[in-house]
Amino acid sequence: MAPHEIRRPFKRRPISDQQKRRELSLLRQTQHRSDAQQRARNLASSVISLQSSSPDVDPEILSEAVPELDEGTESESSNFDVRQASRLRGPEARKWFARQLMLPEWMIDVPDNLSQDWYVLARPAGKRCFVVSSDGTTVSRVRNGSILHHFPSALPGGARKKGASGPANSYSILDCIFHESDQTYYVIDMVCWRGYSLYECTAEFRFFWMQSKLAETGACDPPSFYHKFRFSAVPFYNCDQSGLHSAYTGSLPYVKDGLLFYNKHAHYHTGNTPLVLIWKDESCSQYVIDTDNNGEVPNQQHIVLELQEEGKLVTSDDPPVPFSCLNADFVKQSGLSSGSLIRFAIGDGGLKCVDGRFEKADLQYTGVSNRARAFADSYSKIMFQYMARHSPLKVEDLASTISHENQQDKPPEVEMSD
Amino acid sequence: MAMEITQFLLAAQSADARVRTEAEASLRQFQEQNLPLFLLSLSFELENNDKPAESRRLAGILLKNSLDAKDSARKDHLVKQWFAIDVALKSQIKELLLRTLGSSALEARHTSAQVIAKVASIEIPQKQWPELVGSLLNNMTQQGSPAHLKQSTLETLGYVCEEISHHDLVQNEVNSVLTAVVQGMNQSENTAEVRLAATKALLNALDFSQTNFENEMERNYIMKMVCETACSKEAEIRQAAFECLVSIASTYYEVLEQYMPTLFELTSNAVKGDEESVALQAIEFWSSICDEEIDRQEYDSPDSGDSSPSHSCFIEKALPHLVQMLLETLLKQEEDQDHDDDVWNISMAGGTCLGLVARTVGDSIVPLVMPFVEKNISSPDWRSREAATYAFGSILEGPTIDKLAPMVAAGLEFLLNATKDGNNHVRDTTAWTLSRIFEFLHSPDSGFSVISPENLPRIVSVLLESIKDVPNVAEKVCGAIYNLAQGYEDSGANSSLLSPYLTEIITHLLAAAERTDGAESKLRGAAYETLNEVVRCSNLSEASSIIAHLLPAIMKKLAETMDLPIISTDDREKQAELQASLCGVLQVIIQKLSGREDTKPIIMQNADDIMRLFLRVFGCHSSSVHEEAMLAIGALAYATGAEFVKYMPELFKYLQMGLQNFEEYQVCSITVGVIGDICRALDEKILPFCDQIMGLLIQNLQSGALHRSVKPPMFSCFGDIALAIGAHFERYVAPAVQIMQGAAQVCAQMDTLDEELMDYANQLRRSIFEAYSGILQGFKDTKAELMMPYAQHLLQFVELVSKDPLRDESVTKAAVAAMGDLADVVGENTKQLFNNFTFFGEFLNECLESEDEDLKVTARWTQGMIARLMHSS
């Protein structure tokens, strides 16, 4: 019954600042509520399982370093999170961390559905490492588990700043390559973020998360007092013709060292996995063929194998691929023991394959491997290196596989009847 | 039998307070002791032409107040009371009311029309007064019905239409009502008072007439009558007819095409030559058409296909003439329209409509307006200059940046100079136009701005000079600075172009806020709001020390408000308003500085003093809790974290007051949100206060008097408390979940066609899930088994929600999360339950395919939790 109001706002902003403040407050509250609930959820899912019965870990050191662990449960697998692991010292720490990386197999044949199911990215040249930010500090460890840098960073919980009061359990783990010349950590994968575990997430999701979350923190900003190294997410592409082309020839701020292929559906699998592949050729990598300690390509291909019981020599794969055998006397004489990593050269007899599988190798013993090594070579690495020296897989082979796939993808012509 | 109550009714209006109070008490006593008789007596009073006008007037008011109230709980109560009254007695009352429509006293007729509509609103939906429409129509058709009876009958019909839905009547009745109303508009048969009443009744009946508007013949007839009426001799009737056209423009946009030539002619004649009250409605007709077309453009998503509502491009088709007509109105300014907020005249309506036209048609308006601008902007006559500037400012929203950028770049320097124009209006409109330029053509973040590092110094210096102008101009300059700052909000982490000017800008804004000549304008509020935006959008690494200095200055100002002399309630209101502005600034500063670890200590160091001030602000206002102070306290709790506990003893009573403030539900809602902030800050330390908080929350949720919008935040708050105190929530879990289950039930029964209600249902459901999540996660590892009895109900609720196509994404997310929490927390005991609820697999798949990444993450997590459960032995 009120008269009809036809006044309209004149020369005025349509929303009041108070309303804006109210809405911003609500937004902040909603965000914090969901963060708080998310944190509560993540306490459970982010722990990383560790076999405490594993023979590599000395239970004494473990129980000393991690008083919370009940010594009585040594036969059980117990949950063990990265903050506890970060208290491990010396070789145990190295071994523990060394096992946390996902290791690509070398591409010795081209997988199916490259263009549909795979991403491709140009691997930066440098040291592969695992970066953990937690409790106000950031630590990077290279593949064998030893510390590369210990530094403050803008990653969540990555610096001890005055007045900082983030949640104590917030830690993040990144899979990176440290690129020396621009002192940058190039992030190739994200494993945990703010305590949220991404182990069980697909690569597709992890990559999305990595691109969107990293920038939020300021970790990609130039170095500053509380942020010693810049981080940068590596660009990735769908592995179709143009994606492959971009990764292979595209100009990037870093020196390339081959191409990495990620299966989109694969979870973060620690250790070797065929769902991530590395491929190199001369034009996208300076290090296609392994060099020796002087940086020169030796005449013969060198490989490292692990000595097992009864003199068996195997690769680092799971299950290990047996390559050869050493006789027991030789083992004894040379002071070798089970678990030793041993270096061989491949002789003129080369590698013999039957139906694409390795059958026999002409191995020449050269000695015990460098102590810094934690692993034997993988089967795929040995094969790739061998192919690289003899009949390499070329980028043209990849491209033609993709174009062949695309032709198959075209829908069959269907005749419509009335 | 009715009682004689005239003396009481007169005495209740006596100038003598004692007499008045006594009479009021007697009336109240009568009402409480015998409501039916009381109402009957009032009806007699109203009907009786021998009674004094004063007693009849009060009788009418009391009748209305016995049938209707703004407060919905009170209204429900009144309706129940009415239903309880004896049917025969009610018939008597209704008969008296209908008879009053024929009274010779205009006021009694008018009151009776209103009371009848109130009774109708209660009874007609229940089919309890089927004869009402018939008897009203009888008044219209009976031979020799006096004009005044027809007039009040039409008025009654209009009010009844406004009160009830057309679904409450059968189509036949609707048709008869509409026929009676439209016939009442007939010029040759009716007096002016009847025609006016009929036209006003039609306005109320338009929503009723959907079926009739779908029928072309009936529609033609109605439109013909309205258009004829729009040319009546009497201005008041013409105005009412144009009001009908405005309403038709938005309600029946789809069928207007064939009438547009006539409507265009009618409205342009009115705009050019009719009285202002009529001309304003004629302009409003076009504004409404713009609203419709803008709406249609905004909701016209390409994938919605056929279902999108039709767009007839009326504005585009009429564009050259329409723009010409509107530009002419711009020259009819009043001398001091910028000083008085209550003015609404033809140039303001025309200018506003021009802005809407620009938003409707975009680029094509530019060539039609620019010649007018160029011709008039340098005219010696201030009206021409002002109109030209206004025209320019009003087309800045709508056209593309490509189209506008060259013009604006070319005109910017002219406008900057025009801030020195000799005429106040021109300067006011110039400042407003600058603020529009910065609003629409300055977003460096998205790649375009008319402002460059080269012209920025000049722009800032002009603005800071102009902010010293008269208050109405200064207020517009604040708006310009607001938009200028906003443009730089996301200007990258490293640097903001505005940083070098920050100190100066803040100084000038504070000076503007201090001015005493701006009392009547909104200058002070505008200055503080702009200050907020400047702080909010500043680059913290460059501005931290400036903001750190601003903090004590604002605290000092807030402290000074406590010493203002308070004599009248007006003084009290002004104090509260100033405190609101200053608390607002403090809130923004607290949020800004606590956003980064290196500036947070500034807040920590001042927290005690800031809190003391907020408590003093609360102390100034005994009757209610100060909303802005409460809002700022939430920000402070977030900044200080667990240390906030030391403020709780003193703060707590205000939190309780806030929770109990049902009337100002915004205050209540904000308080609930702040309690959530405090829970997150204090964790377990909130425990000592929880009995009282939970008591109040539960009591509120059970009350019918609480505004419904506060309920969702209250459920969310359950979750906040549970997460903070963990296992200690045990003692609240039974009553809390019971209410949650009740509310879940209510959601299931809501009318899904009501959009507003569905919005509310979504909020409510989300908040219930949030409560479940908080409680479940709080009980994890300690009291998980306590939730087992509720697991089935929770899953049923999730299932119900999962089957609802209207749920929004946030509800889905909360539902999925709560389901995962159940699996995670209660664990193995729910395995069998999950086996029984097969829906979740499909529901999770749907979520995993969502575009929303947050939802995907949550669904993935939930999937993992349920998988873990299923694989456990």
UniProtKB/TrEMBL annotation, chain A:
This is Snurportin-1. It comes from Arabidopsis arenosa (Sand rock-cress). PANTHER family: SNURPORTIN-1 (PTHR13403:SF6), SNURPORTIN1 RNUT1 PROTEIN RNA, U TRANSPORTER 1 (PTHR13403). The lineage of its organism: Eukaryota, Viridiplantae, Streptophyta, Embryophyta, Tracheophyta. Residues 1-25 have a biased composition (Basic and acidic residues). InterPro entries: Snurportin-1, Snurportin1_C. Residues 1-60 are annotated as: Disordered. Signal peptide: none annotated. The keyword Transport applies. Pfam families: SPN1_m3Gcap_bd.
Automatic annotation (TrEMBL), chain B:
Residues 23-103 form the Importin N-terminal domain. It is found in: Cytoplasm; Nucleus. GO terms for biological process: protein import into nucleus. Keywords: Cytoplasm, Nucleus, Protein transport, Repeat, Transport. PROSITE patterns: IMPORTIN_B_NT. It comes from the Eukaryota. One of its GO terms (cellular component) is cytoplasm. Its main location: cytoplasm. Gene3D superfamilies: Leucine-rich Repeat Variant. Signal peptide: none annotated. GO terms for molecular function: small GTPase binding. Belongs to the importin beta family. Importin beta-1 subfamily. This is Importin N-terminal domain-containing protein. It comes from Arabidopsis arenosa (Sand rock-cress).
